[in-house]
Amino acid sequence: METKIHAHVPYGRLAEHLEYAVANRVNPEVFFPAEALDHLVWEELYSLASALHAAGLKTTIHAPFLDLNPGAVDPSIRAASRRRIDQVMKAAELLRPRVIVVHPGYDDLHYGDNRLAWLTNSINFWQEFVPRARELGTILAVENIFEKEPSTIKALLDAVDDPCFRHCFDVGHWNMFTTVTLEEWFSELGEYVVESHIHDNHGERDEHLPVGEGAINFERFFPLLNRYAPAAVWTIEAHNTEHLQRAMKNIQNYIP
Which of 22, 35, 164, 188 could potentially form a cystine with 150 if both were Cys, beta carbons 3.0 to 4.6 Å apart? Predict the structure, then answer.
């Protein structure tokens, strides 16, 4: 089980947390914000990746997302998004991640009348990167953010139709924005899930609380995750070490 549990860490803090990760067998999900990619020292990344691999730890990557949108109507926004994902794919050559998590960029408020244009642009965008993901032995996984129900993500996944392009289910985001049950979400997208972001909240803010300290019913969630996606990576999205430690302890209650 320890091999499937990962923890969120921004790239800028990976070096300072490396000793803790190795000592506690914590597989990192490395988040690359835009500024980290623009100032990346490749020798440093190579050193960190080598240390993680030597310790037998696995990695995943979380791509940048602020201001980006692969399905944007504005081609300049798509170009900026393409540049960032290209940078991430180059970093993946060293980190060799199991999964690269990406944001879809869709929400009903902005794209309700342009849903088809968003979908068409997204399909074309991701079809460029899927062959590179296959070459790297990784999977691009689209995370739910503002989606109220799974139809837009499912349409994108069905259209690209490739095992290297799948779904990251964020249970915290589901709890904030959903209009469907966990069972309904998994019945639509469960077969596509290769990773899940696991954190808790009370349904109003993205609090990133440890498991069991908010309002999410994890007694319903984990059986569904194990049923539909038994091989999925579990990534704890804690934003400080104390919350990570509490989450790692609490999650033991749900491990078969």
Answer: 188
The secondary structure of residue 150, as a DSSP letter, is T
**Do residues 251 and 211 lie in contact, with contact meaning Cβ atoms separated by under 8 Å?**
yes
Yes or no: say if 73 and 17 are a contact pair by the CB < 8 Å rule: no
Q: Which amino acid is it at 195?
A: E
Residues 178-192, mean pLDDT to the nearest whole number: 97
pTM of the predicted model as reported, rounded to 2 decimal places: 0.97
Dump pLDDT digits (tens) for 201-245: 999 999 999 999 999 999 999 999 999 999 999 999 998 999 999
pLDDT at 4 over 90: no
Query: What domains can be seen in the chain, in order of their start residue?
Result: 2-166+177-238 (3.20.20.150)
Nearest to 104 by CA among 140, 71, 131: 71
Burial class (CB in 10 A: 0-12, 13-18, 19+), 194: buried
Say which DSSP state 24 is in. T
In sequence order, which residues have a C-beta less than 8 Å from that of residue 247 and are 6 or more positions away? 198, 199, 210, 211, 236, 238
Scan for tokens 């199991």, then name that residue: 98
